[in-house]
């Protein structure tokens, strides 16, 4: 049966990907590069608006290079981002986080981009088409086709309302936090009370820039009610958003524009970058939007025939610009498992357990870092910051984090004491670890003024090194064709990536 014959009611593919954002495009492209038949169904028509505009180097120089799209992204003219600038913690003056001073991020690739997601996402989706993915926009997936053994495909509605079926060996759900089908893998979403915030954001037609060479940095400024981001997208376009307590939700929903303006005025460091600058009037940047900025993870990320990636799987607070990284990284992990399964690897469970263990591990590192990062900001007068101290993390949340994210599923007990269970004290160990990490970050920031730009004390902090380690390996794979050091399994009996990064290899064979 011809998989592109529009007259057929049922079509056959190797893989169906639901969702065309960075996670979906990455998964689809990485599978198609191995010669498999891939259908990608996207509900909207690109270009379309999306938030999450600040990238990390691992996406640009790692994932994009593996997918063969790095040069096109470079030609797009996005604003270069060399790090981050923060007004955060005890230091009253802003401080810099530079990618260039990481020992593993060499200068030629020690940058990322601030991107207009409408353009960036379309570049990735068009690249998927170019490598052979059958991309269909304006198509709404209604549900999955499954039996007792596995998921077998999806049913979907086309642009004209026609109902179709696509059968496949694997379904990849990359349809975002509003996914209609993530529940098909089983399990549930676990929400973090610590990060249950709300974001209100919009755009200005310009704005001041930080001094060169940091003029493309994201600027994150803590203030009494939460924190603000300031992202220079173009000379005439700046993304500005406030992340505040969920208790502010009613007032923000009632009048988002007034709330947004008031929060900006409450933070002098951001307010003073926008003197007399008007709100943007070009679509789609002419709106002020509100989003629940709640971190969550799924208790299960796959079942036979189906896997979750991107926001369908997990989401974490955006202060470190980790959203696109986690989405594309998880999608690449899933593609390795899918490619290996389609190539006839005998143990499907082992393939997808490797995907899930690594994905949870990476999410856990970012979650742990961000809890510690929030904790280092000292403001005892503020309800927002008092409620986000490690000492106020609920025991049940720590237990859930240790069990579901911190490593028990992956065999990594880094958040707990050796040989201990959650019930016998791992949550207490986790709390102590988070507090120690916060103190280490605080001390590293305090040493920045004495570093003379020759080193970055932040990368001497264990938490920082760990959170960027896997991203650095991705970059090395993209730039050099493989990691600079021999890759070892992340856990006993685990797998490692193939040379091209598209499948799993058993190092014991």
TrEMBL record:
Region listing for Disordered, in residue ranges: 480-509
Coiled coil where?
none
Pfam families from the entry? Trp_halogenase (PF04820)
Family named by the database record: Belongs to the flavin-dependent halogenase family. Bacterial tryptophan halogenase subfamily.
State the name under which the record lists this protein: Halogenase
Upper lineage is:
Bacteria, Bacillati, Actinomycetota, Actinomycetes, Kitasatosporales
């Amino acid at each position: 049966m011809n998989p592109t014959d529009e007259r057929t009611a049922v079509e056959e593919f190797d893989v169906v990907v639901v969702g065309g954002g960075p996670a979906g495009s990455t998964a689809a492209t990485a599978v198609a590069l191995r010669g498999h038949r891939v259908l990608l169904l996207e509900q909207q028509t690109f270009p379309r608006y999306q938030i999450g505009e600040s990238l990390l180097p691992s996406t640009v120089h790692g994932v994009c290079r593996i997918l063969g799209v790095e040069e096109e992204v470079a030609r797009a003219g996005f604003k270069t981002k060399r790090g981050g600038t923060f007004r955060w913690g005890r230091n009253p003056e802003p401080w810099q986080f530079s990618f260039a001073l990481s020992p593993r991020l060499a200068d030629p690739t020690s940058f990322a981009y601030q991107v207009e997601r409408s353009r960036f996402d379309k570049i990735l989706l068009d690249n998927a088409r170019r490598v052979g993915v059958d991309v269909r926009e304006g198509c709404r997936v209604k549900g999955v086709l499954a039996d007792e053994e596995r998921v077998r495909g999806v049913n979907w509605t086309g642009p004209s309302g026609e109902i179709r079926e696509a059968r496949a060996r694997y379904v990849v759900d990359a349809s975002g936090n509003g996914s209609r089908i993530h529940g098909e893998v089983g399990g549930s979403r676990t929400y973090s009370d610590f990060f249950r915030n709300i974001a209100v954001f919009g755009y200005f037609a310009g704005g001041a820039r930080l001094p060169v060479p940091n003029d493309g940095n994201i600027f994150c400024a803590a203030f009494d009610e939460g924190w603000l981001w300031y992202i220079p997208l173009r000379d005439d376009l700046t993304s500005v958003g406030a992340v505040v307590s969920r208790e502010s939700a009613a007032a923000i929903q009632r009048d988002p524009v007034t709330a947004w303006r008031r929060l900006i005025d409450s933070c002098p460091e951001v307010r003073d970058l926008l003197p007399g600058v008007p709100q943007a009037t070009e679509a789609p940047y002419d709106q002020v939007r509100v989003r629940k900025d709640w971190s969550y993870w799924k208790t299960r990320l796959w079942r036979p025939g189906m896997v979750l990636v991107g926001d369908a799987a997990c989401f974490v607070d955006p202060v470190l610009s980790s959203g696109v990284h986690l989405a594309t990284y998880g999608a690449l992990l899933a593609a390795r498992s899918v490619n290996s399964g389609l190539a006839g690897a005998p143990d499907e469970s082992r393939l997808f357990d490797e995907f899930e263990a690594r994905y949870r591990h990476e999410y856990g590192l970012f979650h742990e870092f961000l809890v510690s990062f929030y904790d280092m900001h000292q403001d005892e007068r503020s309800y927002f910051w008092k409620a986000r101290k490690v000492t106020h993390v609920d025991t049940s949340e720590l237990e859930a984090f240790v069990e579901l994210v911190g490593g028990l599923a992956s065999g990594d007990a880094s958040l707990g004491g050796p040989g201990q269970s959650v019930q016998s004290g791992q949550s207490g160990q986790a709390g102590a670890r988070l507090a120690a990490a916060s103190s280490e970050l605080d001390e590293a920031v305090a040493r920045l003024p004495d570093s003379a730009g020759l080193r970055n004390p932040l990368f001497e902090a264990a938490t920082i090194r760990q959170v960027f380690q896997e991203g650095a390996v991705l970059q090395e794979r993209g730039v050099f064709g493989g990691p600079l050091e021999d890759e070892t399994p992340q856990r006993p009996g685990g797998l490692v990536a193939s040379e091209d990064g598209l499948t799993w290899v058993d190092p014991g064979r």
